[in-house]
Design a protein that fits this description.
It is a single chain. This protein is of the alpha/beta class. About 40% of the residues lie in helices and about 15% in strands. A seven-stranded mixed β-sheet has the order 2-8-7-6-5-3-4, with helices on both faces. Strand 5, helix 6 and strand 6 form a beta-alpha-beta unit. The protein is globular. It starts with a strand and ends with a helix. The mean pLDDT is about 95. It binds pyridoxal-5'-phosphate. Pyridoxal-5'-phosphate binds next to helix 3.
């Protein structure tokens, strides 16, 4: 069995060991329910408070603006439906055609209830520009939702500028920052966003936990009804261990942000320079302002699915730019949104490098690609 080379960090990441260690006491010894009044509940309650403060300080928010959720999907659903369905007067939403399905399908659910949604088409480089937003936004737009970084092509959107346009038009602004949090600097006040979604397993935290930043003063429907957890807006006994692990993982990533970025960027440029000198024909998708380590590559005439399976045989994990349905494989909605031609879309793969990858990993990926393309 060959050594595992994990290069699919945009799908999920390996857990930070310190985060895992921090979780353990809350699974075994400190298992009290944080809502109980007795002394045994004090540690979990305090751990939740500390985690909220740690997370808030990583994104420039106040602790009471952080709401724990079960992950990115829930945060997106809550932000979009919870804000829009509350408003009876202005109820249109503007989003982009290359959002994650957690956003797109939440918007479809709004449409089914009679709330209009406009889907902006990004530029070919993979950006929603101010000019594009201005074409779509109207005085009826209640919510604008644009992702901070695209999960397939890694392009980082001009959120601050888009947010300013939304606000000038009287619209609230949500950003799905699931791919960005813990990987690039984020300051919610600098960006001006009203809501921001994040997910722990994308930044070396545990799976099944995330958070939604909700700007103080913004009105939103409760996500679930029941107990008084999460300031009465998201009922349900807290996943204390998961939340603690998320906070430690985020703090560790944020503390080492510059170092990690430099390291991952170096791995990325090594892979690019190997590819450049190899004679393998490929195209890099998306413009240059993008997440460190994320490479969306198209090999014209090749089949991304076949590349994935060939790499899998040598223990390398990557993903494709395709979406499988029961009958066939077609280009993903992201690649279709940026109007990638069929030849390039079919031959697209995504390699996402992270802080745990090494130069040897990059060389092994390159060696496996050269074998596939026989150069
Ligand atoms: N949004 C984006 C941009 C993502 O990449 C993902 C996960 O792939 C999600 C939302 C969903 O997050 P989760 O897996 O935590 O539900």
């Amino acid at each position: 069995m060959s050594k595992l080379i994990y290069a699919d960090n945009a799908a999920t990441t390996q857990m930070d060991v310190a985060a895992f260690e921090a979780m353990k006491p809350f699974l075994i010894n400190e298992y009290g329910n944080a809502s109980q009044p007795y002394a045994f509940a004090r540690k979990p309650k305090k751990a939740l408070q500390d985690a909220r403060e740690m997370i808030a300080s990583c994104i420039g928010a106040a602790p009471e603006e952080i709401f724990f959720t079960s992950g990115g999907t829930e945060s997106d659903n809550w932000a979009i439906k919870g804000s829009t369905l509350l408003n009876a007067h202005k109820h249109a939403t503007v989003t982009s055609a290359f959002e994650h399905h957690a956003v797109l399908h939440s918007c479809r659910a709004l449409e089914q209830r009679g709330y209009p949604v406009a889907y902006m088409r990004p530029s070919r480089e993979g950006y929603i520009t101010v000019e594009i937003l201005k074409e779509y936004i109207t005085s009826q737009t209640y919510l604008t939702s644009v992702m901070l970084a695209n999960n397939e092509i890694g392009t980082v959107q001009p959120i601050k500028e888009l947010c300013a346009v939304a606000h000038e038009n009287g619209s609230f602004f949500h950003t799905d920052a699931v791919q960005a949090v813990g990987h690039i600097p984020i300051d919610v006040h600098g960006l001006g966003v009203d809501m921001l979604s994040a997910s722990a397993h994308k930044f070396n935290g545990p799976k099944g936990v995330g958070f939604l930043y909700i700007r103080s003063g913004l009105k939103i429907m409760s996500y679930s009804d029941g107990g008084a957890q999460e300031f009465g807006l998201r009922a349900g006994t807290e996943n204390v261990a998961g939340i603690v692990g998320m906070a430690v993982a985020l703090k560790n990533n944020c503390d080492a942000l510059e170092e990690n970025t430099r390291y991952v960027a170096r791995l990325e440029s090594r892979l690019v320079s190997l590819l450049e000198s190899s004679g393998i024909k490929y195209v890099r998708n998306g413009g240059t302002n993008r997440l460190p380590g994320l490479l969306s590559l198209s090999f014209p005439g090749a089949d991304g699915e076949a590349i994935l399976h060939r790499l899998d045989l040598t223990g390398i994990c990557i993903s494709t730019g395709s979406a499988c349905n029961s009958k066939n494989t077609e280009a993903s909605h992201v690649l279709r949104a940026i109007k990638l031609d069929d030849n390039c879309a079919k031959g697209a793969i995504r390699i996402s490098l992270g802080k745990n990858n090494t130069e040897e990993d990059v060389e092994a990926i390159f060696a496996a690609l050269t074998k596939i393309f026989r150069v």
